[in-house]
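We now fix the convention by which a protein and its fold are recorded. The integers have meaning only within a learned vocabulary of local backbone shapes. A complete example follows; check for yourself that the lines match position by position.
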Amino acid sequence: MAIVVRLDVMLALRKMRSTELARAVGITEANLSLLKSGKVKGVRFETLNAICRHLDCQPGDILEHIPDDNDTS
């Protein structure tokens, strides 16, 4: 996977639980768990905006691009 989700790191830095973030952002804990594990194919900008606003961070603090071995770009 070329995109790694670092949401768990931001939650730890902010000393916040997933349940609190899910409630504040308006998504289910199950969907937040899927996002944290990287098992989603996409995330809405609206959701990403709400997460960043609540955690007081930038999207780059949550999402990281790690090139694959066969990535030629």
Q: What stands out?
A: The radius of gyration is 13 Å. DSSP finds five helices and two strands in the chain.
